[in-house]
């Protein structure tokens, strides 16, 4: 059995791969599962944000490490959260989502954990963390 998409305007059955209705020429929504990695707004992890955040984490940690050793991770984590606030301030969550704020919060936490993990591994590799 062939999968079909029903046109919302004229209720005609179209093929699953159809982009327009063959009866009324209405544009059909193609349901694609978003990739985990990517630069589209629906993706879960954005590598560019993680790399920039990790650089901010590492640089702020290296600078504060010489001033106040005990607070270096705390300050670099705060700097990373400020960066993530500005990175996701105007972020759009897909409109089909019911809990937009919750999804955006999970996305920010996921990015933060990836940034901190990458930053700490890099600091250990560079020899800053003992």
Overall description:
The protein folds into 2 domains: 1-31, no CATH class; 47-126, no CATH class. The protein has 3 helices and 2 strands. The protein has helices at 47-67, 72-88, 100-126, and strands spanning 4-6, 13-15. A two-stranded antiparallel sheet has the order 1-2. The mean pLDDT is 80.
Characteristic key phrases:
2 domains, two-stranded antiparallel ribbon, mainly alpha, about 130 residues
Quick description:
This protein is mostly helical and 130 residues long.
Q: Layout of SSEs?
A:
Blueprint: E1 4-6, E2 13-15, H1 47-67, H2 72-88, H3 100-126
Antiparallel strand pairs: 1-2
Count of helical stretches: 3
Rg, Cα atoms, Å: 22 Å
The percent of residues in helical segments reads 40-55%
Percentage of residues in strands: under 5%
Instruction: Quote the average pLDDT.
Output: 80
Q: List the strand order in the largest sheet.
A: 1-2
User: Which structural class do you get from the secondary structure elements?
Assistant: mainly alpha
| Number of beta-strand segments | 2
- Along the chain, the helix and strand elements come as EEHHH
Silhouette: rod-shaped
Ends distance: 62 Å
Whole-number count of domains: 2
Largest sheet: 2 strands, antiparallel
């Amino acid at each position: 059995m062939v999968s079909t998409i029903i046109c919302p305007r004229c209720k005609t059955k179209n093929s699953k791969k159809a982009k327009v209705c063959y009866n009324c020429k209405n544009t059909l929504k193609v349901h694609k599962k978003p990739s985990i990695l990517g630069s589209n707004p629906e993706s879960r992890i954005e590598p560019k944000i993680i790399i920039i955040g990790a650089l901010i984490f590492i640089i702020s940690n290296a600078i504060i490490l010489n001033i106040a050793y005990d607070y270096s991770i705390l300050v670099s984590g705060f700097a990373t959260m400020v960066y993530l606030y500005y990175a996701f301030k105007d972020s759009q969550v897909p409109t089909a989502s019911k809990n937009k704020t919750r999804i955006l919060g999970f996305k920010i936490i996921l990015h933060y954990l990836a940034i901190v993990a990458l930053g700490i591994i890099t600091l250990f590799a560079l020899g800053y963390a003992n």
